[in-house]
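User: Please check token order:
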Amino acid sequence: MSALLLIKNKQKNQVKKALCVLIQQNLVTYQLQKRGFVEYEAQCKRVLRILRYPRYIYTAKTLYNDTGELIVEELLLNGKMTMSAVVRKVADRLTETMEDGKTMDYADVSNTFVRLADTHFVQRCPLVPETPETPDAPPPPAPTLVINEKDMYVVPRLNLVGKGKRRRSCDEEENGEHKAKKQKQDGGSSEPPPDDGIYWQVNIDRFHQHFRDQGIVSAVANRMDQTSSEIVRTMLRMSEVTTSSSAPYTQPLSSNEIFRSLPAGYNIAKQVLDQYLTLLADDPLEFVGKSGDSGGGMYTVNLHKALASLATATLESIVEERFGSRCARIFRLLLRKKHLEQKQVEDFAMIPAKEAKDMLYKMLSENFVSLQEIPKTPDHAPSRTFYLYTVNVPSSARMLLHRCYKSVANLIERRQYETKENKRLLEKSQRVEAILASMQATGAEDAQLQEIEEMITAPERQQLENLKRNVNKIDASENQVDETIFVLESFIESTVKKP
């Protein structure tokens, strides 16, 4: 902390508060060093995950409706929260959106939270272990947090009874404040919640696992058909909780187990399922592999090979968009043949020598292909050296990942510029919308509302529409780039050998 104080030239309390917020949001971790001081480390990967927050929230909405969406949103906004606090907050927010007289029950929100925990989308945070207090021993400079893996997804038994509350009007708030003050003066104290100290956070790795599985299913559907993709989806769903996000394969599943777990809508015979599984196992991409013959045949999904295929397809698509279909043909040829001389590239790709040479040098200068020298003699004389073109997929993926992050930074800067340029107009629009909302609440006439709306002129309205359209395009582009980032990062992580 002393280093932080020197760098920022700030007061100690301000630095402490900033560190507390960053630790709460899982953006900074701390570690007690042997010499007795506490070292803080910024989690750069976690900071970059903020770009993906909207995607996490949308996925929760798709899988668990509005309730799941708000649970994940609250946990992402607050970093860590107790289950009881999340349930109350979400119930209140859902009640606000309901018609008058309807409220959201705490039990319904609790059930959705339990489902999220059962499927590992939310997990417990590490806790400070309970140790007997010794008056002589001084407390450590920083607590050591521990968590038992068996307890990470165990939801505490809470009997949360109640319903969501709406925001009160000004008069009701004043009356409520008087009552609260009176209760405080009478000595009434609220008891701590039953799950006090048990905090939850979003399991980002589980969301990434879900994104990966969706990508694999889509790739199988594009290559084969919908039934094949549904079989692979069933295999991934059966092993989503039992297989870790970094595992190279899913757990082996028998043909009989897969048949019993297929969705009700897919009424295919067992013999047809076996034919599909054989077809998937014999496919050159090797998304599905056969690991045994018991139980009608044991099958696994090869996750690392699937990620490599997705990353390779992304590279091919980018080369085609950037350099054209002929360059893409050469790129695919190098991927298939591994190492080729320039003359071989010309012959196999059936492209004239001059064009092939230009295309190869263009891709070489952009680091999409690399050149390997194999000398016949120790002096490395050019006349006695083979020059082989090849594609180093992990290296190309890293280069593209770097460019993708640059693209995201440019998009963020562009959005900020667009917003800054139209700041005055946006503030005026917000003021007019606030006035309209308050007048509609008090039952104003249509003529009065129209008069307020006319405060924004036609050119200003057109400018606002253009701004909205531009910002929406930037947001969509950012999401598309992030999808590419996810594929490339997942592939690069799968190639790194774990210690």
Notes: The first strand starts at residue 28 and ends at 32. The radius of gyration is 29 Å. Residues 182-189 have pLDDT under 50 and may be disordered.
